Amino acid sequence: GGGFGGRSTAQSSTTSGRTTTQTHTTTGPRGDAPFLFCWSHMQIDSYEEKLIRFQLVRRASIFACNDYAVISTKKKSIGQINGSDVFTWFNPANAVGMGRYGVDGATTDSFLNTETFLQAWDTLLGSGHLWPFDFVVKVDPDAVFFPDRLRAHVKDVVGQPVYYANCGKFGGRPMLYGSIEVFSVQALGAYQDRREECKRLPWHGWGEDYYMQHCMD
User: Fold this and answer.
1) What's the confidence (pLDDT) of residue 111?
2) pLDDT tens across 7-54, in order?
3) Nearest 5°: phi and psi at 25?
4) Which end of the chain is less packed: N or C, by CB atoms within 10 Å?
């Protein structure tokens, strides 16, 4: 991805009248701020894979973020950057069906994909890779996404525990719709601390976006 660069910090200490300085190098994202880690979940051998491959070639969508990941049910090369293969992150997941709103507790007419994305979020959080960034953005492969435009919208809330509701389709309170989901790392830190509590919610008839909004709220 965009990768990491070195950041140096100096710390001084005094022993027996002599001052010594130790320099520690830590890694942080390269590129424009606010720093974005962006990811997509891709179905292997589908139109999503074709879109992801084309986005990688053009360095578009998630590949224009500071760093990125593509998660799939098999580890697979999706192209090359600077002569090196870019592989998906493996995440096991079962096939999911479509919901019918109001039937058997379903709250969506879309995929009942909460379990798939619960596992994906667990993989991402468990990697430890997210925390140097300011925001984590989940993007559907077929969504149109411009990271630079997002940076302009989120720059004033860096460091705050926020997520962005993005759909006013039904009027009233805006909803979080899953084509693009934006979370600050502080919000995801709160989710990580309380995710077992969230997983006890009755999410089996929910879409992933409905689950994340209820959990965040």
Assistant:
1) 42
2) 333 333 344 455 444 443 446 899 999 999 999 999 999 999 999 999
3) -105, 125
4) C
Q: Which residues are 147's β-sheet partners?
A: none
Q: What's the rounded Cα separation, in Å, for the pair 106 and 20? A: 63
Provide CB contacts within 8 A for 193, sequence distance 6+.
none
Closest C-alpha among 217, 214, 215 to residue 195: 215
* CA distances in angstroms from 178 to 49, 166, 182, 206, listed in the order given: 18, 9, 10, 12
Does residue 94 contact residue 191 with C-beta atoms inside 8 Å? Answer: no
Can you give the three-state secondary structure of the chain, one letter per residue?
A: CCCEEEEEEEEEEEECCEEEEEEEEEEEECCCCCCEEEEEECCCCCHHHHHHHHHHHHCCHHHHCCEEEEEECCCCEEEEECCEEEECEECCCCCCCECCCCCCCCCCCCECCHHHHHHHHHHHHHHCCCCCCCEEEEECCCCCCCHHHHHHHHHHHCCCCCECCCECCCCCCCECCCCEEEEEHHHHHHHHHHHHHHCCCCHHHCCHHHHHHHHHC
Q: For 109-154, what is each residue's pLDDT tens digit?
A: 444 467 888 889 999 999 999 999 999 999 999 999 999 999 999 9
Phi and psi at residue 83, in whole multiples of 5°? Answer: 80, 0
